[in-house]
Fold this sequence. Notes:
FAD/NAD(P)-binding domain, Nuop51_4Fe4S-bd, FAD/NAD-binding_dom, NADH dehydrogenase (ubiquinone) activity, oxidoreductase activity
Amino acid sequence: MAQVVYGVWDGVVHDYRQGKAVEGATPPDLKDFEVFDEGNPIRAFVADRGFFVFDEKVNLLDAFWQYLSKAAAESCGKCTPCRMGTVLVRDALGAMRRGLEGDLSLDEIAAMAEQMRATSLCGLGQSCGTALGKAIAAFRDEFEAELAKKEPARQQHAMSYMTAPCIEACPSKVNVPRYIDYIRDGKPEHSLGVILQKYPMAATCSRVCVRFCEAACRRKMVDEAVGIKILKRYVAEYQTGAHPLVFSKEMIANVLPEDQRVAVVGAGPAGVSCAYHLLMRGYHVDIYEAQGEMGGMAAIGIPSYRLPKDVLLNEMNAITKLGGRFFFNQRLGKDFSVDDLMKRGYKSVFLALGCQEGTKMGCENEDTSLEGYESGVGFLLKVHDHVAGIKTHNIDGEVVVVGGGNVAMDCVRSAIRMGAKKVHLVYRRTEADMPADHEEIVAAHAEGIEFHVLTNPLAIISENGKVTGVKLTKMEQTEMDAKGRRNVRPIPGSEYVMPCSVVIAAIGQQVDTGSVKPEDGVEMSKWNWVVANKETLATSRPGVFAGGDCYLGPSTLIAAMADGLKAARNIDDYLRRGSTRFFPRSRMRKILENNKLFSNDCIEVPVKNEYRVHHPELSPEVRKTMFGEVEQIISSEDAYKESMRCMRCYRIYSVITEHSIPEGAA
């Protein structure tokens, strides 16, 4: 474990120089602070909540000069304390580290840092001077010792990283405050560009994203989280206006030779994202898809009342406009193998198979051949074909859906639209425990879905090969265990039968068991997921990478697209360099995550209460009779109003290292 020499964190002074210690302070339990990259010790760390020095020879003037230089460079300039304060403090420290007299004394620098904290309008200005002010107050002797030398200090090796809680919560690490800034400035096309740096499916994601960013939004400490998702929807819709964004091969700066070809297996979010980033890097990409259309689970598994198919198709077409090719009705394990792809001359393969095979409930008499028994994914595929006019599928009587995730919500809301007399949702835990997006749960209630929580299926009742009901039991929560968690157990004697004509098992999905065969040389887990390196997504077979649901297990669209970007980056390294690079920003993210550096972040400057804008939507009585899109776009006026609620909770984190840090990408 890294040993702190001195520092201040959350107002607590730590001083272990020459064996002395501050009374009441215990050495902090810091994880992963020994080295930044291989053989490169971390000498100091500066952040919004304080700083730590691990090497007594660290020059504080230079360390804070580099930190404030990043703050000055990233200041939006919209308020004087941050715009001027960061520059004045940076320049004063810069002069001092060169052995010159600064325009500000140490006391004036500390006063300026406090003024920035108290009066800046956003998180960057409010936080960037905190550590410096604490350092001057607690360790003035270190600054004065450096000033007394009156000689230039050598610039130390360093790396500074600006982020925000919403950015770190996003699997794709989209710079959320930046794209909100562009909306505020009346430049939605610039905002769209920020999103497209990370993934090509902005309009799709703006409709179905589970909003990890909003869960992390610090605005919740004031009133409500910023409507990040509805702002993304506004931006994504903007590109279809008078001057829409048109993808073309001319957007690719450096097209590689024809033999630099990569195969992507699966045209879902992970595969499309990987193809997009590889195409933008100049590679020639072919996508093999088992279904007859693009989009994967986004196409067949998300009902059109949430994601209109023309919206998805428009974004998928970006791949062909960039030069990518789709090969449909081509199933891995049946129509071709990994070996076949390699023999066709592909330099690398990305497996993005998705999880399109349902998981059984494990109850008595669960026979998948029964008429009326459906898996969640299988049912949604039938809904997709019905709405698309490919094959009619009618529902009579009552429907029971078992599960509590987003697939279960899609099933119950689709079943009511398909004409079911009544739809029941059965879930073994409480409604608060449901993993589905809260908005989907609220919408299901509004559309008349009957919830049966703390209820579990025991057996399927059938007659003449048809489902006629489900035998259920009531459940109760157990006492909390040592970790504060509660399990559930059946209540003896509470069994009863719920009549129905259709039962849908929406409890999980898995990879098609026949897709990856042993002879492919790709290791599979006991859960039938592809085993890959967490950092590189490389599988056990050289040149073959994997990501999305087939690697993560059933996950989210945004997580799948993040894997697509990661895979493209590492495939590019593999083909160009023969090995993957070190990525400093990714390394810094690990430090933040491992030490939960956002956990105690709070709002100190008063903020006026302004509750969020909500998107207009069709009324429940109208929408449950049709598959038309429920949520509508907000106006430009509302988009501006909502963008103004963002507090730009940027924070800067900086490391001083022994040696130079290798350059890399995000």
